[in-house]
Amino acid sequence: MKTATMVLAGLYMLYLAWRIATARPIGSGEQGSHRPSFLGGFALAIANPKAYAAIGSLYVGSLVEAEQGAYTTAAKVLVLAIVAVTVNTTWLAFGAAIAAVLRDPRKARIANIVFALLLLLSLAPLLISSPLER
């Protein structure tokens, strides 16, 4: 079952890389394109499964026990909030910085290919690990 899941996940990642590499560049003057609304972005943030996975992995790595007290629990929640704000602010700044590049069709094509290759590169540890390590 584990091997089948890994194969399916790997195939899905290859599919995503292909879709990213072959995606049409965004045109600044395309018909039908519009600026996303705050509400749309907020809904996407709430429904983002990657955020839940990241927060879940943080919670799994940091146990909160009853005898630790409210101050320790509050400190852990504060650290989590700081990490979330820092990551989201950095992602926002990166998105704003790269937006101009993605409006140029030639540069956008190059960026799409680079992003697809980076996605494939992220699979390298899975592909080169021995079956015993999995």
UniProtKB/TrEMBL annotation:
Compartments, as annotated in UniProt: Cell membrane
Chief site of localization: membrane
Protein topology in the membrane: Multi-pass membrane protein
InterPro entries tied to this protein: LeuE-type
Organism field: Sinorhizobium americanum
Coiled coil region boundaries: none
GO cellular component: plasma membrane
Keywords, in A-Z order: Cell membrane, Membrane, Transmembrane, Transmembrane helix
Superkingdom to which the source organism belongs: Bacteria
Any one Pfam family match given in the protein's UniProt record, by short name: LysE
Gene Ontology BP term (one): amino acid transport
Transmembrane regions listed in the UniProt entry: 77-102, 109-128
Annotated protein name in UniProt: Transporter, LysE family
